[in-house]
Design a protein that fits this description.
There is one protein chain. By secondary structure, this protein is of the alpha/beta class. It has 2 domains: 236 residues, Ribonuclease Inhibitor (Leucine-rich repeat, LRR (right-handed beta-alpha superhelix), Alpha-Beta Horseshoe); 49 residues. The chain contains 4 helices and 11 strands. The radius of gyration is 28 Å and the shape is flat. InterPro entries: Leu-rich_rpt, LRR_dom_sf, RLP23-like. It holds the Pfam family LRR_1.
């Protein structure tokens, strides 16, 4: 293979890695050193590859990283070392779940101000995490610190700078009080705070936030003194539910549902009439518009066909040369 072909192949692989993040290796061992030469690499997915080395130093050369996922491998070493290598990158997605990274979660992770997903679950991390670590992560939407030996030291009056969609803090130490900062998170649809050492009652405001998936009791297990719905243990002073309560207002609810369906069907019918006849009716009644429409469609089809043939021929000439 000639020198030009090698350059073209290298450029093609670089482009592929730039556009398609899921490109894995199954050989195990270490991450290939060739990645260290791809300075413009933006997205890298090396999940489930049995990688066993320490944190690669060449990550420090990746100044454009925005997506990095190396979950379910055997990477070892200090998490702080990896974060140091990424300090100059605009990382938005960082997933290191299921490795053997050690040490504490460094405060320097707060310098990755563009992060919207931070997943560090199932490692060997330990130590305390304070509110200072999150002070610059205003765009964070996904946070997973589960199955480590971490303690979150967050005051009751702490107001996070972000709005999280998913929170997985299973096996982290949050207790003994129920984390009141969750009252500020209005967009959560998944929450796991199981085995957190919480010995408090689930507050009433918790069920007025519009949550979806968190009603599953499995997200609360392992907190022996935690009480209140949806858990079986009831808090002292909780009244027994009234068996007749579901019937109250049932007739009004049914009438409201019927009225909603009626409005929905009327809206669908009007939308169909306006959308369909507004376009098709105009083409049927106006001959000049109809001719222009079909001529434009035919010209577009011809242009796409010619462009495809020209580009295929150009690629063939490049690789044959």
């Amino acid at each position: 293979m000639g020198g030009r072909s090698l350059k073209l192949l290298y450029a093609f692989l670089t482009l592929l890695l730039h556009l398609k993040p899921a490109l894995g290796f199954t050989s195990g061992g270490s991450i290939p050193d060739a990645f260290g030469n791809m300075n413009s690499l933006k997205n890298l997915d090396l999940d489930d590859n049995q990688l066993e080395e320490c944190v690669p130093k060449f990550f420090g050369n990746m100044s454009d990283f925005s997506y990095l996922s190396i979950r379910n491998n055997k990477l070892s070493g200090q998490l702080s070392e990896l974060i140091h290598h990424l300090s100059g990158s605009p990382v938005q997605f960082l997933s290191l779940d299921g490795n053997q990274l050690k040490g504490s979660v460094p405060k320097s992770i707060g310098n990755l101000s563009m992060l919207w997903s931070l997943c560090l679950g199932s490692n060997l991390l330990e130590g305390e995490i304070s509110a200072q670590l999150f002070s610059n992560l205003s765009g964070l939407e996904e946070l997973s610190l589960s199955h480590n030996s971490l303690t979150l030291r967050l005051s009751n009056d702490w107001v996070p700078p972000f709005q999280l969609l998913t929170i997985d803090l299973s096996s982290c130490n949050l207790g003994p009080d129920f984390p009141k900062w969750l009252n500020t998170q209005l967009l959560i649809y998944f929450l796991d705070i199981s085995r957190n050492g919480i010995s408090d009652a689930i507050p009433s405001w918790f069920w007025n936030r519009g949550y979806f998936y968190i009603a599953n009791p499995s997200g609360f297990i392992g907190n022996l003194a935690l009480c209140g719905p949806p858990l079986t243990p009831k808090c002292l002073g909780d009244a027994e539910p009234n068996a007749e309560s579901p019937k109250v207002g049932s007739k009004n609810n049914q009438e409201d549902g019927d009225e909603f369906l009626k409005c929905l069907y009327i809206g669908m019918g009007l939308g169909f009439m306006v959308g369909f006849w507004g376009v098709c009716g105009s083409l049927m009644l106006n001959r000049s518009w109809r001719h222009l429409y079909f001529r434009a469609t035919s010209n577009l089809n011809d242009w796409l066909h010619v462009a495809m043939i020209v580009n295929i021929a150009r690629l063939q000439r490049m690789f044959q040369g």
